């Protein structure tokens, strides 16, 4: 019971922490009252969907879902998230393909491309682009940073699967990188993708002030490094099998391991798109919620789906005796927490141009309802 | 015999390629004729030392060596390389200690600090600082980049020693990182040091134009990444045991694996110090020679010294059936090549303020004559 109390307490604090800053400071778009927010953003159909507790809803249905909203001067705008994702993933894949051409040494570049170009959700690159577009920037401006995010993400997966880490033979329905290219090439190719991420971001981004670029590069490095995602990964690794770990540690792991990564994608996209500091802070909170949500759902899927359904080894957290939300608070409370995180994420977008916010609103649903 | 011919041909080309650009372009300090160069830089004592073929000269003696030169307005200046290195290494170690404080998760930060702060030559950080000072910059300006170089270097050593790579248990006279902290922590700590290198460089460098910082970050990433040092590491790994590899491949490996790394240190230091493009190009050539020289000497030491003398496992290249200069062209020709590289490196410094060039001139000797 005390564990459940802890969750409730945690959720309450979580909600308090993330209450959006609604001060009417000059030069921002975040000027709506809470009453206006609810009224302006969602028509009943969408609101009902957002309040749904059916986390097992079919993914195909979810991504077909059309967020409908109204705005001053427009009576209705329809947003098709499936088409949006399809188009963005296509652009990202094309850019990734061009960023890592196949050259000598062939095996090395093949190893990088194998993981980088394998079929994936591309949540982080799309988050990066959507954040850029949210504040009025162009897709092309955010694309090098978006590719950089996917490069670092690919490295994480390659290293995570190594025998000395999770020892996984399957990833996205294919053999893990080291099973194809050997552990030594995987270690080097992984590290190379990190270097390439910084190179690509620093040299291929066009039309952004160098001061902004230095800030964005510093943020990326901080959020994926020893105070960010890597700290979460390490604690996740070191806590495996320990029985004396609690919710606080679990929260720390997921906030760093996944949410910091999402934060990097969102705020870097926003920065190169020309965001104000207040807009950047909103996106920090949004992406922290989305990242944590992604991990909570991941934990749930690990115990509710088969390897075939996931395209990777199911039940591996359980086998590795890893800390997970279902293990700590049970499936139902985990689902409830996921719902709250999705709701909280959406609250951060209140006051932005609703048309430009539509992809991120839909993304919060997508992450909540994904089935693999 | 054809192999030796190849070496001679290679050396001749090498010398030709690196002939300094002596065009009297405006705004540079590189304005001396070849006659003036020789006269301006070296007194007979130093010239004799530079021409020495005694690579086995005692290291302590070498670093005590005083480069003596004369310059317009000054009759004589004495440079003590040993004191210079001692002071710079002390500064670098202090900065590294501050850049990676011991914090939670403790084991993770201990792993990073274990390799990063272990006794080392600090050649790359000092090269970075010396290049900055050569063009009129301050040590403090180059320090974050210098620390970044050592962080990436530490990662390379940590990953190189892994069982799936060189499988080495000894490094700098201590147990390898994974032998103390476990392979999984070593992989993550290594990657984290790379992220930290970029973060530290981007956030801690003071007084440098952001445009220069973006360029320097891009160069660092390129030179340590899949077109730079990592490509050399991979080819080194993949060529082990093959009998059909030649000098060209060996040169490629060392130029990328080590020389690209040295190049990054030198040109980034020069950039943040305010160098012109011509000065940067000189430092590219200088550091390529120094880097290659370091590797040639490394190959020689591997077969001529004991593990105790080196502080790491001796003869490991031979055991791993790796390509090395002694294996390809013999010890004597390798020593001759090392001499030529040192000479060629020094030629790149002709025309710079001799007092400011003194540390780099001495470094060329130090790398040539090091005993471990």
TrEMBL record, chains A, B:
Comp. bias (Polar residues): 11-26
Cofactor(s) needed by this chain: Mg(2+)
EC number: 2.5.1.1
Region of interest called Disordered, as start-end residue ranges on this chain: 1-26
Keywords: Isoprene biosynthesis, Magnesium, Metal-binding, Transferase
Pfam family, one: polyprenyl_synt
Stored PROSITE patterns: POLYPRENYL_SYNTHASE_1, POLYPRENYL_SYNTHASE_2
Lineage: superkingdom: Eukaryota
Pathway the protein contributes to: Isoprenoid biosynthesis
A GO MF label: dimethylallyltranstransferase activity
Annotated Gene3D superfamilies: Farnesyl Diphosphate Synthase
Assigned protein family: Belongs to the FPP/GGPP synthase family.
Protein name: Geranylgeranyl pyrophosphate synthase 4
Organism of derivation: Nicotiana tabacum (Common tobacco)
Source lineage: Eukaryota, Viridiplantae, Streptophyta, Embryophyta, Tracheophyta
């Amino acid at each position: 019971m005390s564990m459940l109390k802890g969750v409730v307490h945690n959720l309450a604090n979580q909600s308090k922490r993330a209450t959006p800053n609604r001060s009417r400071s000059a030069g921002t778009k975040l000027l709506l009252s809470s009453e206006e927010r609810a009224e302006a953003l969602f028509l009943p159909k969408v609101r009902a969907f957002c309040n749904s507790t059916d986390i097992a809803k079919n993914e195909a249905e979810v991504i077909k879902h059309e967020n409908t909203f109204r705005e001053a001067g427009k009576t209705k705008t329809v947003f098709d998230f499936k088409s949006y994702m399809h188009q963005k993933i296509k652009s990202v894949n094309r850019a990734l393909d061009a960023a890592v051409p196949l050259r000598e040494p062939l095996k090395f570049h093949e190893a990088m491309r194998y993981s980088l170009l394998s079929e994936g959700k591309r949540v982080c690159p799309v988050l990066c682009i959507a954040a850029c577009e949210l504040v009025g920037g162009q897709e092309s401006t955010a694309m090098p940073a978006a590719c950089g995010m996917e490069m670092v993400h690919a490295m994480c997966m390659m290293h995570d699967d190594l025998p000395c880490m999770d020892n996984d033979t399957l990833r996205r329905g294919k053999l893990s990188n080291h099973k194809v290219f050997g552990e030594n090439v995987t270690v080097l190719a992984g590290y190379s993708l990190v270097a390439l991420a910084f190179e690509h971001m620093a040299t291929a981004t066009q039309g952004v002030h160098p001061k902004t670029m230095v800030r964005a590069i510093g943020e990326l490095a901080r959020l994926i490094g020893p105070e960010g995602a890597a700290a979460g990964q390490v604690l996740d690794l070191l806590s495996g099998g320990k029985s004396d770990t609690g919710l606080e540690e679990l929260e720390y792991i997921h906030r760093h391991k996944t949410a910091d990564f999402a934060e990097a994608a969102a705020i870097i996209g926003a920065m190169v798109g020309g965001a104000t500091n207040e807009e950047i802070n909103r996106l920090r909170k949004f992406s922290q919620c989305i990242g944590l949500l992604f991990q909570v759902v991941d934990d749930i899927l690990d115990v509710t789906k088969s390897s075939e359904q996931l395209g990777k080894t199911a039940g591996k957290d359980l086998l590795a005796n890893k800390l997970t939300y279902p293990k700590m608070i049970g499936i139902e409370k985990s689902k409830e927490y996921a719902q709250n995180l999705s709701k909280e994420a959406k609250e951060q977008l209140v006051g932005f141009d609703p048309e430009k916010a539509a992809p991120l609103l839909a993304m919060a649903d997508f992450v909540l309802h994904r089935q693999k």
